[in-house]
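User: Hey, my collaborator sent me this sequence without any context and asked if I could get a structure. I don't really work with proteins. Can you help?
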Amino acid sequence: MKKNIRSVFNIKTISAAFLLGFILLHSACNKNFDNVLPKSFRNDTLGLGNNSKKVLYIILDGVKGSVVSSLAPANLTQITNNAIFSYDGVADYQRNTITNAAAWTTMLTGVDYTKHNVSTEAFTGLNLQTTPTLFSGIKSSLGNVRTVSLASTAAFNDNLAADATVKQTLADDAAVKTAVIAELGAGNPSLLVAQFHSAEVAGMANGYTGSTTAYTTAINTLDGYVGEILTALRARKTYAQESWLVVVASNKGGAATSGGAPGSNIYADDSRNTFVAFYNPKFKPNAINKPDVTNLPYAGVGAKFNATNGAVQSDANFLNLGTNIEATIRFNIRWDGSAGNSGYCAILQKRGLTNGITGGVPGWAFIKDDGGIISFNASFTGTTGNSQAKGPTSQKLDDGKWHAVAVRFFNNGATHTASMFVDGIPAQTANLGLTAGNGNLNSPSPLQFGKYTNVDCFITEFAVYNIAIPNADIIAASKKTPLTPITDPYYNNLVAYFKTSEGVGNVLNDALGKAPAMNLVGAANWTNYADISPNLSPAISEAAFKAVPNGVDIPVLIYNWLNIAAPAQWSLMGKFYAPVVSYPTN
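Assistant: No problem. I've predicted the 3D structure and written it out in structure-token form, which is a compact way to encode the shape of the chain:
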């Protein structure tokens, strides 16, 4: 051996027929913003009817959700009383540098840059034939209805509003507000989009923080505009006969830098943090908060190993380390057995031990040791004793938590050496020389998990690398799980990765297909586990970032509100947020 060196779920756009099917009907009346629906109101699933359902879509560029939360501006706060809303929204769940153009395109097409191809402010790659905007989708579905785009940024209208009935680029945000009020007063839009850019300008120049006066002033000014627009909305002569969905959403957040490394926490990327509210005066409030991604359980199904149940490698030569082979082994373990040394049982071994830690039996083993710690123990051909590195006393298996164990075999000059770590903490003997006798670690006995008196544990993610990974990298990666090409810089050096998560059968397979299988002996004891451990940090899946409103989710609800069943070829990536509402009949 030598050195050669996103629980995701699928989202389907729900057709308009489901909108009222997901809504709970209650008898209530919200007095702060009256919009009484007529008794004759019905869900028009085919998009037919009198066009009473309308959408006001207010886009606030660069307004961070966290800053809106701390500022609590009056009007944005007020609408959350009747909205599905989040201060933890994300522009998207990607890790590239985000731009205004990419964020706008996502919000209007319902797909992110991996499909609409826009990543720069130049809109390079945009193809509205394959990823139509809301304006295009409404035009093709509803025909001759009025759609309006009022923007303070020319690029927004020039690139995304070609199919709007009316598009107008205004001098500034104040002019956009005035134009929106005028449209609400005299027009009859089915979709009215208003794009405001002043907070982005202030944030870019001064910083996107709650302590930046220019930025917070811009947000408060926009909040005032929102209030004026909502006042104009309810002043419409036909308002009582209409049903308006009001969407107020940031296109993105803001930060000095944007994006992150593969596998990084998107919630930590302030450039993607957004405020999103789906408002109607009949909606019940529904605050959607981000999950705690720093405290995820290590969960799965695994083979439980004990005195009679174990796993044995089918190739006895696998992991013979000889006198100078360099390698790294790592695995996770949860001990459920007795406390203390548990009779010095061999938990995991390639040695052939059957009773205690008999010296002179060549090979290596991880044993339960005094005080409930785990130790690495080795003996060699032609010797009568053992060489041992005791694990750190702070990391006792007896605590019932998951622990991450690794041992590095390397040549320190002419000395074959082993360094063990438990949860990234070095063993009491940091470098164990493997030179007693002839120092040969080879054993005729195969690799074995469990099947040893007093053993009671899970062993998961047993991995073998063909290099001695540097100590610093072992320590840095000790909590990472699972091992993937994204999370593990040494993934290409893996020669075996037994996840032990099959859940059925009597065989443990190498997930890479490189190493021979291990056979379960005794009764296969597949058992579920889901434990939070300070010693393991499970990878954050895409599902964690889809748990809050994303930019791609907005068109899904808009289409549903307008009774448009989005065709499959639009490939919408968002999910449907079903409102819980009260329908008054007075």
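In plain terms: The chain has a mean pLDDT of 90. You can pass these tokens on to your collaborator as they are.
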